[in-house]
Request: fold
Amino acid sequence: MRPEMFDFKEYEKFMSEYLGVLSRRRQKWDSLVSGGYTRLSRGPKLKRYVRKGVPSIHRKGVWMEVSGANKMRREEPDLYKTMVAMDIKNKVVDDQIKTDLPRTFPNNTNFDPTSPKSFQTPLYNILKAFANNNVTIGYCQGINYVAGLLYLVTKDEDSSFWLLKVICEKLLPEYYTESMPGLLTDMKVLAQLARQEIPAVANHIDKMQMPWALFSSKWFICLYSEVLPVETVLRIWDALFYEGTKILFRVALGLLKLNQDRLLAQTEFSGLAEELNRITDSHMTIHCHTFLEEVCSKTGSLPRARITKLKEEFGAQVRTEQAERERRRREDGSGMRDG
Reply:
């Protein structure tokens, strides 16, 4: 369902051009996977193909293979069936999932609870199975959007479950735990990368005392699924499953760099906050093919080693801060009891 202010003219223009791109990509991918998805081999050719987008008909097969989800499933083929058959032991987790179901893509007709074919039931099953399988995470807001989009793509609960495990346990292992050290670390990493790559924008954000978490937490926690047009999100996820999490940073830096002039023009905190929200909902982001090309060209090379080093540095900082807060909390609690 499109909002009242939706730019139908711009979207129709985009689709008229993009359908031709999709048709050409489909032919090339049909040839590439003719021997089956298990025959895909990592290398420059596959990376180039993924960067240009995986056709929807091949997304489930390609994602399952390049992410390692197929390998994991082969080792425990009945895991989903077993986990989904169990009740969630933690009632709080079960209640949280049920509360968030109607909030998941409320503008997508597939999740309309009044429809007999609503995706809310499969989504509940996937989240339930994951919560049973990973009690450390259980459930965290944001996972519902990730799982919901996975099911929209795969139309298969079992595959969605395994892809969700890849995201939460392999790609972003500390994003969805209770204290979210992985998410907090990556927001600090983004701020540092921005100071190095786009200092004018980063300095402006810092000068206005805008917390990076205020806008980037939503980008990262749902992997852009709640903030960017779905076609664009799927293109980002193509790269995410193949290349890993550096694509999340490239997109964030790209959004800031491509909208540099608009952001620098804001002289009030509220205006900057609004502009940071608006940059994810522009005609630029609708054009998923050119958007991703621009992001990759404008952000230049972003070596994994550089990101890893920053993650280690800021990860240690986050853990120290969290340990200190926990120590103070315990001391305050002890003091209250003594009193």
